[in-house]
């Protein structure tokens, strides 16, 4: 593993700390201030580069007066930026103050003003004391400005990060946030601005002082609430804009993208992933199950909140089978039958397999009791199943309904005499414990909403869910 060494200059170290995301960075030239000819570093016709810009490389490019360098945003960010173009109607003291007043409504009460280049544009940096979700910050900034009639548009006012459209990251499709140039680069014409919007030098250390001071003054409680509101507003707008199928797809993609945010969400998320893979990817069988598992394990919060990591493969297969029975690819002929599929089928099959293995293991070692309640207890302990489950499958273990066929090559001894206790009625285990294997460590039934979801009326010819409650899959939006 190659270590990303930091610059030896403390100023370079601080710069890399403030702007940490260096994938698909951009570079330009200082020859023409009006046309830097920006290009994405490492990007070719075959795709983006495989490595981010190194910290020392970033600092060297920043110091070079002949070139410009810029960066993008990751999923989390500790700053924002507003770019006011020189020809914008807000490129004035009054316009900048209006923008700053709009930002104060979401808790950003202190900013750092920088002239971006010789062209005269203004960059308004919004330092934050802690990282926040990048998209939520983008939405909060957007709606804070729009509520004050400051509309985002190229050549007027632009916000970084932007409210980007999302690629399907679980399919390795990524949409990057827009990139912005770094401040105060030599030869770029970038300088600090004072509160009167006049040039105030290009000292990088002064920029850092102002940055740290602004961080401490932000109202994060107000900003957190504004980000929640902005995210919700953006979702509502998308729903109004798109048709039913697009809305359904957007909602599924949103759930999949955000992943786990707490415990008890595994079954819901696996259902959403399976539904998306079946309807919008047209997957079936092994491919659908593999899609569900691969997508689930790469979602945010999976390691922290998913309690079923030890059995995620079987859960993925179960939900894939369920989705395949109750959904069909978009614009294809509905394939649902009147059969009702229960997610508990997977658990039943697993229980049967464990009981069979336990019985055969005990029989082969001569440790299978003849007394019914003793036999039941032994099997429950080995199979890690409950007595209630065990008595559903008497034919698998009960002396009156089951027998061991001894292989002559392995055991020539006479079978033991039949015990008088073989006809004992079933007895409940005294401890009444629910035993589980490593595969099901929670030790209690999981309440799964699939049965309710998958018992809708069948026979409908429109929509992935069938009937009047579905979506119009028969036509493309």
Automatic annotation (TrEMBL):
Residues 411-431, 454-477 are annotated as: Disordered. This is Helix-turn-helix domain of resolvase. Residues 460-469 have a biased composition (Gly residues). It comes from the Bacteria. It comes from Phormidesmis priestleyi Ana.
């Amino acid at each position: 593993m190659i270590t990303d060494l930091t610059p030896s200059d403390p100023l370079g170290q601080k710069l890399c700390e403030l702007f940490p995301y260096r994938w698909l960075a951009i570079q330009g030239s200082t020859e023409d201030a009006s046309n830097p000819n920006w290009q994405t570093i490492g990007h070719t016709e075959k795709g983006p580069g495989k490595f981010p810009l190194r910290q020392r490389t970033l600092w060297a490019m920043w110091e070079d007066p002949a070139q410009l360098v810029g960066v993008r945003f990751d999923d989390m960010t500790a700053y924002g930026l507003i770019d006011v173009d020189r020809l914008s109607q807000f490129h004035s003291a009054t316009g900048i103050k209006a923008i700053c007043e709009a930002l104060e409504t979401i808790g950003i009460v202190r900013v750092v003003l920088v002239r971006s280049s010789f062209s005269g544009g203004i960059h308004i940096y919004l330092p934050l004391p802690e990282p926040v979700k990048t998209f939520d910050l983008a939405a909060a900034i957007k709606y804070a400005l729009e509520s004050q009639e400051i509309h985002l548009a190229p050549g007027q006012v632009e916000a970084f990060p932007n409210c980007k459209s999302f690629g399907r990251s679980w399919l390795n499709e990524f949409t990057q946030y827009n990139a912005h140039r770094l401040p105060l680069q030599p030869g770029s014409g970038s300088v600090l601005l004072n509160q009167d919007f006049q040039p105030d030098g290009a000292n990088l250390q002064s920029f850092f002082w102002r940055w740290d001071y602004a961080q401490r003054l932000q109202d994060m409680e107000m900003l957190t609430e504004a980000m929640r509101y902005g995210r919700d507003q953006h979702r509502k707008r998308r729903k109004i804009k798109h048709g039913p199928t697009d809305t359904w797809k957007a909602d599924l993609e949103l759930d999949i993208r955000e992943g786990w945010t707490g415990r008890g969400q595994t079954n819901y998320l696996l259902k959403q992933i399976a539904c998306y893979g079946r309807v919008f990817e047209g997957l079936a069988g092994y491919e659908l199950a593999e899609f569900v598992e691969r997508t689930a394990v790469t979602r945010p919060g999976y390691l922290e909140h998913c309690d079923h990591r030890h059995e995620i493969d079987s859960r993925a297969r179960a939900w894939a089978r369920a989705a395949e029975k109750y959904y069909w690819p978009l614009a294809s002929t509905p394939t649902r039958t009147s059969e009702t599929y229960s997610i508990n089928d997977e658990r039943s099959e697993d229980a049967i397999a464990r009981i069979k293995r336990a019985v055969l293991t005990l029989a082969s070692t001569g440790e299978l009791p003849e007394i019914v309640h003793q036999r039941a207890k032994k099997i429950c302990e080995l199979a890690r199943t409950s007595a209630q489950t065990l008595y559903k499958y008497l034919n698998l273990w009960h002396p009156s309904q089951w027998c061991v066929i001894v292989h002559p090559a392995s055991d020539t001894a006479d079978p033991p005499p039949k015990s008088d206790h073989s006809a004992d009625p079933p007895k409940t285990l005294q401890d009444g414990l629910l035993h589980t294997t490593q595969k099901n460590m929670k030790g209690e039934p999981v309440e799964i909403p699939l049965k309710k979801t998958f018992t809708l009326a069948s026979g409908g010819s429109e929509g992935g869910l069938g009937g009047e409650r579905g979506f119009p899959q028969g036509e493309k939006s």
